[in-house]
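To assess whether ligand presence alters the predicted conformation, the chain was also submitted together with alpha-D-galactopyranose. Input:
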Amino acid sequence: MRKLLLGLACCLVLNAGAQKFENLAQTPPMGWNSWNTFALDINEQVVKDMADLFAKNGLKEAGYEYIVIDDGWSLKERDKNGNLVPDPKKFPSGMKALADYVHSKGFKFGIYNCAGSHTCGGYPGGRGHEYQDALLYASFGVDFLKYDWCSTGKLYAPEAYATMRDALHTAGREVLFSICEWGDNDPWSWAPETGHMWRTTGDIYCCWDCEYIRDKGLPTQWSAWGVWPILHMRKDIRKYAGPGHWNDPDMLEIGKCMNAAEDRSHFALWCLSAAPLILGNDLRTANQDTWDIIKNTEVIAIDQDKLGIQGFEYSCSDSLSVWVKPLEGGDWAIGFVNLSQKTKNIVFDWKTNIINDDLAKRTLDANTTEYKLRDLYQHKDLKSTTKKPLVANIGSHDILLLRLSKK
Ligand code: GLA
């Protein structure tokens, strides 16, 4: 009996750490990350500036929550006790003070490391130091950890990430765990138990439709992709996303290099995909178009819909791609993307396009239900309903994003 009780107690202790923090990320996480603009050239002033601009421009009200420092925040070596050391030149006040600053502005604070021996930028990784690092992050006041996959050798991804998850849980401070192994090990099949979001692809590159080859010709050659190809790299994984666990097609490139039409499409497509909305631009130089896009709460509501069902591409022909997402209350979001170089006149007959979603077990059928239509970028209701075919002009690479509600 004693043995049995001991065994049971042991089992309970072991299992106590073996879970992720629940009730986080019930809708896709929203925030800002330093990587897409600043790469390794990051410092505390930049992070403070972003926190200030988040607060000043009402990004909290729009739903943004996390401010995350990516790679390059530590010294190149751990200290004699094996602890990571924030680079004092980049972060002279230390991480705790910076986290306190971000918290004082009403936001949460995130940091980055890697499951391997080194980060992708060549800084010390977490391998073998998971529990020690988790305690350090808790002492900083970290609320979000992005965990990368460089220098991992033969590590087994599900186990490596589970170790860090357990370390975070044991450290006891609630942390959103963002898995970044680029979709190499089918994370959708194991990561829902481990993290709150997982990258589905390699890195995004700032362009609408391109492949960018890094280290071309070297053994280390790898590719990054533009908005359009990245969305099409993984098939049949929408069923793995839902409240608490999301497919992540990488951070946003809005306000960096594309035109306003492409930025609108990029943002809307991420929302239709129930993707995390992690801004990557320098908010200090953001223009009005960028602010209008990233603060469009009607578009954000598509992403943050409580059902948490990832949308899908319903059709793509003649340079017109149509995306749909079922929403709560019987609503639908639908986006028409013009892939051509010229403005396109479209006619979409709701009655002949009966859209069936096997995952949501719902059908958008204008023959049996009439829907009213709202243009989410123009912020206006259309005069027509789904009774009549939709007739519209869409600029090159732009999107017409509608919300359908039962009339
Ligand atoms: C990888 C990740 C990126 C970024 C860099 C940092 O490439 O996929 O998002 O974190 O590492 O070095």
